[in-house]
Amino acid sequence: MSNFVPVMKHQTKEMTERIRRQLRLLTVILTLCSTTVLAACGSSDDPTGQDGKGKVAKIVSRGTLLVGTTGDYRPLSFRESDGTYWGFGIEVAGEIAGSLGVKPAFVQTSWPTLTADVMAEPQTFDMAIGGITITDARQQVMLMSEGYLANGKTILCRATESSRYQSLSDLDRPEVTVMVNPGGLNEKFANENLTHATIVVHQKNEEIPTLIAEGKADVMITEITEAPYYVQADPRLAAPLLSQPFTHGQIGVLMQKGQDDLMQAVNAVIRKMKSDGTLRRLHEKYGLVYAY
Predict the structure, then answer these.
(1) In whole angstroms, what is the distance from residue 200 CA to residue 219 CA?
(2) Residue 271 half-sphere exposure toward CB, CA atoms < 13 A
(3) What gap in Å lies between CA 213 and CA 235, rounded to an integer?
(4) CB-based contact 200:177 (threshold 8 Å)
(5) Which of these, 19, 150, 234, 277, is most buried using a 10 Å CB contact count?
(6) Rounded to whole angstroms, what are the CA distances from 4 to 14, 171, 276?
(7) What is the rounded CA–CA span in Å between residue 185 and residue 19?
(8) Is 254 within 8 Å of 142 (Cβ atoms)?
(9) Residue 5 — very low, low, confident or very high, per pLDDT cuts 50/70/90?
């Protein structure tokens, strides 16, 4: 009998944890099915994973939502030297994880490897977040959520030269050195639109504003989401075209195709954050323009 009781206690502990996971999954399923956008819950292909095989079910069973992020894009996603992450996108990821009843765990990716990391098999993470613009090219090969942040290309330059740059043509001159981070849409935009300027690719996005301020280059191609942070942090910098971005778009959550149940859950959270004011308050916290 002395060996029987500990076995029963161990089994009871495992059973309790299994029941907790099942209850979390049931809560997620009921939440998803309560929204009209997720009416497919009753379809035969079981998009919410009620059979235990869907993406959401696996995340709930694991107890962790694995989130890929570059960690180099203040104030959306930044990784400190001690490995901790902070930012607007990081908090949105926390809201998504909380809705599933799990904890977020952040996995570092990079702009040049973002697509490959999202599409990797076995998966490196469940979804990616933090300054990822919704584009047709990405939507052709991956899933992207509804937008949760307005975006657009703009520039950073030295405050003493802000009057020099009032249009795209002002940038596209041989005497202008433009700096961009590698592999993302900033580099793509520069290569497509600045055929006369000198384009310099710098590996670390977060270092570029300081390099501009120090005169190592004249202009940084960036986003209206990122520029205000650096202007506020460094009085040597200016964003003269902040209210007149070259492009207009939205930022969303990126993931592999075939994860429709997770995409539905993410969209449900974004819509809830818009309707209950959470998203607006988060914009205000990080000094971002609310466009919803």
Answers:
(1) 10
(2) 14
(3) 9
(4) yes
(5) 150
(6) 16, 78, 52
(7) 45
(8) yes
(9) very low
Crossing angle between the packed helical segments 88-100 and 260-275, to the nearest 10 degrees: 110
Reported as a single tens digit per residue, the pLDDT across 126-167 is 999 999 999 999 999 999 999 999 999 999 999 999 999 999
Cα angle 55, 61, 65; round to 5: 60
pLDDT at 18: 56
pLDDT band of 14, cuts 50, 70, 90? low
Residue showing tokens 């809830």: 272
- Record the tokens describing residue 3, joined without a space: 């060996």
Q: Are 162 and 238 in contact (CB under 8 A)?
A: yes
Distance CA(210)–CA(220), nearest Å, equals: 10
This prediction's pTM: 0.77
Q: Quick one: tokens of 159?
A: 């405050």
d(CA 203, CA 211): 12
- Tokens 């005169």 locate to 215
| Amino acid at site 199 | I
8 Å CB contact between 178 and 220:
yes
User: Distance between CA 278 and CA 272 in Å, rounded?
Assistant: 8
Phi, psi of 40 (to 5 degrees): -70, 0
Q: What are phi and psi of 185, to 5 degrees?
A: -75, -20
Cα angle 83, 85, 90; round to 5: 155
Q: What is the mean pLDDT of the chain?
A: 87
